[in-house]
Design brief:
The protein is of the alpha+beta class and about 1500 residues long. Helices cover about 55% and strands about 10% of the residues. It has a 10-stranded mixed β-sheet. The chain has a 7-stranded antiparallel β-sheet with strand order 6-3-2-1-9-8-7. Strands 31-28-35-34 form a 4-stranded antiparallel β-sheet, with no helix packed on it.
Length: about 1500
């Protein structure tokens, strides 16, 4: 693991013995190999390698003899026709190695970009052998920073292999997996400081056995961010080199000692001494309190790995430190002994240098004490991380709760390729929002990062991407390169094959596919996952049980989140109204309020025949026809438009009548003033004839003007009223006058005749007015009918005009297209010969370039062969010298053996001589021998002499003589042995000197041959590059020849093509002219009809005519009635006059004039009164009409509002049913989690537990301000799942693309989807949360989020200090560099500490503390250890603490270096290390060693 909690390099849990455990691994014989054996074609297994351009090439692969590298042949294949049909090899084979320790992961299945490219280029017949599931393998490894490749240094490379043999495949994968595990285990045996140096040493391309030059020393210090000037570093290097008495350079172990001195110098550069290092201060404190002092040991007791010259503390002191400072009260002394045993057993530069020492043999004394260097290395290492290791272990959390009780690490838009290499929100947010590039490797990366909920937006594929694809939007062309749905499933399957015990992986599918492709998706799921037992099929009773299954019950499975219908019947549909794009809105209040009723329409009675303001109108009639949403929307639109027209007409009519009523009231007021009537008189008299309905006429305009004249009017009226009485008296007085009566009769009779004529005339006028009124009404109806006819005709004409215009435009475009074709033909005709010659010239040039490049390649090959020959010669010389050295070594050993034998013989002869001399001395010193010497020789001896005779005594002399003879012989032998020993020793020295000389020559020759082989490899690489370039030039030449042939063919066919184009042009011009004429005529007709329709909408003339006719009719009727009344009165008067004529002709004759005058005056007053009353009644009527028209307008507006509301309902209905889609029953049966749109929490709590909601994260944060919403979420998430996703449409400025996840976890949201395509602090917080439970992607929620009555949670009060840092690398991604590419220059690190406490309603983090920046020191920066800061945590189970380290630049800005987030509930007290991660939350390369050193204290 390189990400999450598993990336920490912790100590083994138990004691172990040190040693090269990787080298002891026994490989299968066929996997063993060396560079030389692979070059000669022996050893290893046959494989096919996929190159970066998608080509397949033959290779051999093996493991090196020390089991630390993968060896791969690098020969070039000139042509490949099939996967396993390779060309004959003519070039010499070379091999390169990949260090196993640099491998990040091994991925099964052909899912890398190289594999996908190769698959796309492969012929269909070859794909049958391309068994990507079982035979494809990708090895992802970190390339050394010093390695150069096209595009500059890069972080990761891949070795993509196809191993056709299943046996070889399984052997290779098993061996590689075992060696990777053993390598990781062996790394734990190394001291962190020594491992740090080894990493940078190898990363600059140096072998561990090579020596470091001065320039390489400066490179090393720059990579380690040593804050010392180059001149000083160079001088210190030279001085140290002199102390080591070396002329060529420093070894790895010598460099380690030099680096220790430089660390102290680095502190001095910041005005600090070694004693000011916080870790050193802790050491001194523990050392001073050690109750068991160190004891000087003799040589026999120096088995322990503690340097006798270095201070040490006892296990008791270590235990006291662990309990008092680290608050690990349960730690026992035995556990401390085990820990010290492991720490003292770690390999350092000193211990590894002593290769003659048996590091496997360790006694119990190694667990009694620990040195300062090992103590400091421990407390600043991953083993002392602030994160509680028990809570970080996988399996810490119980996985048997329902799925809704867990936070799940969730990714958003997983398919998108990485969007930004920087840290924080990208500057151009629009590029992020519109991003569409995809990468299937993002799924693998997310899974390895601990994500267990992945997102797939599936669409119907296009062109070669047929079937379901994964993309952000509907692909419209093949250039968009979507992902195949099947490739995503294979990536998930590949991960589960390598991690079969993984907790369930949730695939969040947003399905936009057709029914056919949905069935294909179901088939893929069954074939790729189901066939391997990796697909979870939900049980039928899951929703009924009210409890989701547990993660443990679905371990190793894939869970589907998609859509399920309410009933599994043929033709079932689902409502897709909760897709992210639909829910993602900035107006969250509207989003919450604007909820549609999702009740199943089929459950309601009747069919929808229309809409009203409150919703749909249903009909239960048998003949009711169900209309489509489009038809219903069209009808609602038409009704709304019609209602709008009626409103406009009613408003115009009401305004006209209001104006007429105002004018009528003014006329009535004026006539009343002229008649001398007050308003009350007019109302009183009008009420006698017209029933008052309460409608008041505004007579205020003349009431005031009449008030001042009212008294005078009354007096005048009184005087006038008395005159008729006087006339009557005169008439009575002249009662006998017949003439007068006669005259009155004649006058009355004439008046009667005149009244009769007037009645007849008025009757004719009344009839004419009635006919005119009927005609006006017919004209108005005809006007409305014409308006509708003209509108329809105008619409049809406009549509026809548009169609004709489009046709004309198409025809015109066709003309332009044909003209362009003709112009192109002319241009092509003019340049055809040029093109032919140019293509041929370019082809010749390409051939020439190819020939030149091939010649260069041949020369390079010759050079490579020459270099290879030289390398072989030098290697042969090395081997010959090696053989000679072996022979000389045998001779030296033989000479030494002979010299030893000669020496033994000489020593034996000397010993024997000394013994004989001793015997002679004993004989000579004996009494008997002295007596024989004194008596002399007495002659012969008698035969019968006794033992006491002189003959017996002479035997001593004989024995003495024999010993003297033997001494003489031994002396000669000793002289010979001495000479032989001298000769043998001389021969031994000569042989040994000759052996040493040859050994020195062999060593020199080995270096020469190594350089020669390296040069040969470089020459061969140059040749391969040139050969590839030559092949590309040959391909270009072939393409240019094809272009030449096509150009020549085009020249031949140009005449016929011209005739065809000219004919097409003539036809297109004719059609264009005709279409343009038709379009103009139709446009004119449409404009004329539109103008007539617009004019027809003005009905004011017809309305005016109708009103005028109505007024005339009323006036005629009133005049006719008045005429009838006058006629009756005339008849009465005529009869009276006739009677008076008989009795008093004369009186009547004399009074005739007076009576006639009086009648005329009375009639005039009555006529004025009648005119005023008539005007008043007309005004009342006009006001009634105006009020009624206004009421009609108001009613029309109300109707229009209802129609608009009904239209809105129809639109919502159509929008709703536009989201209704058919669903595959096969796919639905595989779906466990069914997403639905929120209506309200009361309804949501009643839905089955398998149904869930999705919210934009901005909406979740918006809902936190409302307690009702918060309570609803808390209650809902106890049994149901809730997912939130980033709001792409949020427009406010922000430094993060992701939202604060802690605030959403705090209200129970289980799946807080994060965008892993960018890096920011919120994403690091997400990674920190899921460090719990071993970064497995599942964390159990606290109790208060799982029940209604949880126990109360205690607040926590912490005090923190930032003390120092270790091995901080340069920022990744600075100034456009990719992640993993380190920037140049020094770093000025400082630290920020944030608290994400998850308090409801609080969306932002709290910045707790910021340190000052340390200038130019990333190696071992020290901050002010006396400064402390505190934090209070209300909910420790929710809160997350974030440490982030930044580089302060000279312009005041800062670049992110590394960071780490820790759940507060997992923090440990004491002096702790904070292991830092890069922006991708990985610990790889230089980030493997970066850490902070802090102190954390929990205050009661």
């Amino acid at each position: 693991a390189i990400s999450g909690q598993g990336a920490l390099r912790t100590l083994p849990s138990t004691r172990h013995s040190t040693g090269p455990i990787v080298a002891s691994y026994e490989l299968p014989p066929k996997l063993k190999g060396e560079r030389k054996s692979l070059k000669e074609g022996a050893g290893g297994i046959a494989v096919a390698k996929v190159t970066k351009n998608g080509k397949i090439q033959a290779r051999h692969v093996a493991f090196s003899g020390d089991n630390r590298s993968i060896l791969v042949t690098t020969n070039r294949i000139r042509s490949v026709k099939g996967l396993f049909k390779f060309a004959t090899q003519k070039n010499e084979v070379t091999a390169k190695g990949i260090v196993i320790g640099s491998i990040v992961r091994v991925q099964r299945g052909g899912l890398t970009n190289r594999f996908l490219l190769a698959k796309g280029q492969m012929h269909e017949s070859d794909k049958e052998d391309f068994n990507e599931d079982s035979n494809c393998l990708s090895i992802i490894y970190r390339a050394p920073s010093g390695a150069e490749a096209k595009g500059g240094p890069h972080k990761f490379e891949t070795l993509d292999l196809v191993i056709s043999s299943d046996t070889d495949f399984n052997l290779f994968v098993t061996a590689l997996s075992d060696l990777m595990a053993l390598h990781d285990e062996e790394r734990k045996q190394y001291d962190p400081d020594f491992l740090f140096l080894r990493f940078h040493w190898m990363d600059i391309g140096k072998a561990l056995t090579e020596e470091l030059s001065s320039s390489e020393w400066l490179t090393l210090c720059n990579r380690m961010n040593v804050p010392v000037k180059k001149a000083f570093l160079t001088a210190h290097y030279e001085e140290f080199l002199g102390d080591m008495q070396s002329e060529t350079g420093l070894t790895l172990y010598e460099t380690a000692n030099l680096l220790d001195e430089v660390k102290e110098i680095a502190l001095a550069m910041t005005d600090l001494a070694a004693e000011d290092d916080p870790a050193f201060k802790i050491w001194k404190k523990v050392l001073d309190s050690d109750p068991v002092p160190a004891v000087k040991m003799d040589d026999a007791e120096l088995e322990m790995e503690v340097n006798e010259n270095e201070e040490s503390i006892s296990a008791v002191a270590f235990l006291s430190f662990v309990r008092s400072e680290q608050k690990e009260y349960k730690t026992s002394l035995e556990e401390v002994h085990d820990r010290l045993f492991i720490l003292n057993g770690q390999i350092t530069a000193t211990t590894e240098e002593k290769s003659d020492k048996d590091n496997d043999r360790m006694d119990e004394s190694t667990s009694e004490r620990i040195s300062r260097s090992r103590f400091i290395a421990y407390i600043t290492s991953d083993s002392n991380d602030i994160m509680n290791p028990e809570m970080g272990d996988q399996g810490y959390e119980e996985m048997t709760h329902p799925l809704s009780h867990y936070w799940i690490n969730t990714s958003h838009d997983t398919y998108l390729a990485k969007l930004s290499d920087g840290f924080g929100a990208p500057k151009n947010r629009e590029n992020i929002v519109n991003a569409r590039a995809t990468d299937v490797q993002m799924y693998t990366s997310a899974l390895l990062r601990g994500v267990r909920a992945l997102e797939l937006d599936t669409w119907d594929g296009v062109f070669e991407y047929e079937g379901p694809v994964v993309a952000r939007r509907q692909p419209v062309s093949s250039n968009e390169l979507p992902l195949l749905f099947s490739d995503v499933l294979r990536a998930v399957r590949s991960f589960l094959l390598s991690c079969p015990n993984s907790l369930p992986i949730i695939l969040c599918i947003e399905n936009h596919c057709s029914l056919e492709n949905q069935d294909i998706m179901a088939d893929y799921l069954e074939d790729i996952l189901g066939g391997s037992g990796m697909l979870y099929i939900p049980q039928e009773n899951v929703a009924i049980s009210g409890m989701l299954p547990s993660p443990e019950s679905m371990r190793g499975k894939v869970v589907i989140k998609c859509k399920r219908p309410k009933a599994f019947v043929k033709g079932a549909t689902v409502m897709n109204d909760d897709f992210d794009a639909y829910l993602d809105a900035s107006d969250y209040d509207t989003l919450l309020e604007d909820q549609l009723d999702d009740e199943d329409e089929e459950e309601k009675v009747g069919v929808i025949v229309g809409f009203e303001a409150t919703g749909p109108v249903r009909s239960t009639a048998d003949d009711a026809v169900k209309k489509s949403p489009e038809a219903l929307l069209e009808a609602a639109t038409a009704a709304a438009d019609e209602s709008r027209i009626e409103v406009e007409s009613a408003r115009a009519r009401a305004e006209e009548l209001r104006i007429d009523a105002d004018a009528a009231e003014e006329v009535a007021a004026e006539l009343g003033r002229l008649a001398g009537l007050s308003p009350s008189d007019i109302r009183a008299r009008a009420s006698e004839d017209v029933e008052d309905d309460g409608t008041a006429v505004d007579l205020s305009k003349f009431e005031n003007s009449l008030s001042s004249e009212s008294e005078e009017m009354e007096r005048s009226r009184s005087q006038d009223a008395s005159k008729p009485e006087e006339g009557l008296e005169v008439q009575d007085f002249f009662e006998g006058s017949v003439e007068g009566a006669k005259s009155e009769f004649l006058t009355a009779d004439a008046a009667l005749l005149e009244a009769t004529d007037v009645v007849a005339t008025k009757a004719i006028r009344l009839q004419e007015a009635e006919e005119g009124l009927e005609k006006a009404q017919r004209d108005l109806a005809s006007s409305y009918a014409r308006e509708k006819e003209l509108e329809e005709a105008s619409r049809r004409a406009a549509s026809e005009a548009r169609s004709n215009r489009e046709h004309a435009d198409t025809a015109r475009q066709r003309v332009e297209t044909v003209r362009d074709m003709l112009r192109n033909w002319k241009d092509n005709a003019n340049s055809a010969e040029t093109v032919v010659h140019t293509a041929m010239t370019e082809a010749k040039i390409s051939d020439q370039r190819a020939a030149e490049t091939e010649a260069r390649a041949e020369r390079a090959l010759a050079t490579a062969e020459k270099d290879r020959t030289r390398a072989d010669i030098e290697t042969q010389k090395e081997e010959d010298l090696e053989h000679e050295v072996a022979i000389l070594h045998e001779k030296s050993v033989l000479a030494s053996s002979e010299a030893r034998s000669a020496r033994e013989r000489m020593e034996k002869a000397a010993t024997m001589l000394d013994k004989v001399n001793e015997q002679i001395k004993l004989i000579e010193n004996s009494t008997q021998y002295q007596k024989e010497i004194s008596e002399g020789d007495r002659g012969s001896v008698a035969d019968d002499a006794s033992e006491s005779s002189p003959l017996y005594v002479s035997k001593f002399s004989a024995k003495h003589a024999a010993k003297l003879h033997k001494r003489e012989e031994l002396t000669k032998g000793l002289i010979a042995a001495t000479k032989e020993n001298s000769d043998a020793e001389t021969h031994r020295r000569s042989a040994h000197e000759l052996f040493e000389e040859k050994a020195r020559m062999w060593k020199v020759q080995a270096e020469v041959s190594a350089r020669a082989r390296k040069q040969a490899d470089r020459s061969l690489a140059i040749y391969e590059e040139l050969a590839e370039h030559a092949e590309e030039e040959r391909e270009a030449a072939a393409l240019r020849k094809v272009a030449h042939e096509k150009a020549a063919k085009n020249v031949t066919q140009s005449d016929s093509y011209r005739s065809s184009v000219q004919a097409q042009l003539m036809e297109a011009e004719r059609a264009s002219t005709e279409a343009a004429h038709v379009a103009v005529e139709s446009r004119k007709r449409a404009e004329r009809l539109a103008k007539e329709a617009a004019d027809a909408k003005d009905h004011s003339i017809a309305f005016s005519a109708l009103e005028a006719r109505k007024m005339r009719h009323q006036e005629a009727l009133r005049a006719y009635e008045e005429a009838l009344e006058l006629k009756k009165k005339a008849e009465t008067r005529a009869n009276e006059a006739r009677r008076l004529l008989e009795t008093s002709s004369e009186v009547l004759s004399s009074a005739k004039r007076e009576v006639a005058a009086e009648i005329h005056r009375a009639n005039a007053e009555k006529q004025a009164e009648r005119s005023a009353i008539s005007a008043y009644n007309k005004a009342v009527l006009s006001r009634k009409q105006a009020t009624h028209a206004q009421s009609l307008a108001t009613l029309a507006e109300t109707t229009w509002d209802e129609k608009k509301a009904a239209l809105a309902q129809a639109k919502k209905y159509k929008e709703k049913y536009d989201k209704v889609a058919p669903v595959s029953l096969a796919l639905a049966s595989m779906t466990l989690l069914d997403s639905h749109k929120l209506k309200n929490w009361e309804k949501s709590l009643a839905i089955p537990c398998t149904q869930m909601h999705s919210f934009p994260q901005g909406l979740v944060l918006h809902m936190l301000d409302t307690s009702t919403q918060v309570n609803g979420m808390l209650k809902f998430t106890q049994d149901h799942m809730l997912r939130s996703f980033p709001s792409w449409n949020v427009t406010e400025s922000t430094t993060h693309l992701n939202c604060n996840p802690v605030a959403q976890w705090a209200v129970g949201c289980q799946m807080v989807a994060m965008d892993f395509q960018v890096s920011d602090e919120h994403l690091l917080v997400n990674d920190g949360r899921f460090r719990m439970n071993g970064s497995s992607g599942y964390v159990l929620k606290p109790e208060y989020l799982m029940s209604d009555d949880p126990p109360s949670e205690r607040w926590q009060h912490w005090k923190l200090q930032i003390l120092s840092g270790r091995y901080l690398p340069k920022p990744s991604g600075r100034r456009g560099l990719s992640v993993g590419m380190l920037s140049s220059g020094h770093v000025n690190p400082f630290v920020r500490v944030y608290l994400y406490d998850g308090i409801t309603g609080k969306n932002s983090a709290t910045l707790l503390y910021t340190t000052h920046s340390v200038d130019r020191n990333g190696l071992n920066p020290v901050w002010d250890s006396e400064k402390e800061f505190e934090m209070e945590v209300e909910r420790p189970s929710i809160a997350v603490l974030l440490f982030s380290v930044w580089d302060k630049r000279t312009d005041g800005s800062s670049d992110f270096i590394a960071g780490a987030a820790v759940p507060v509930c997992c923090m440990r007290e004491g002096y702790r290390s904070v292991s830092l991660y890069d922006s991708l939350h990985t610990k790889i390369g230089p980030f493997s060693f970066a850490s902070l050193f802090v102190r954390a204290q929990k205050i009661s």
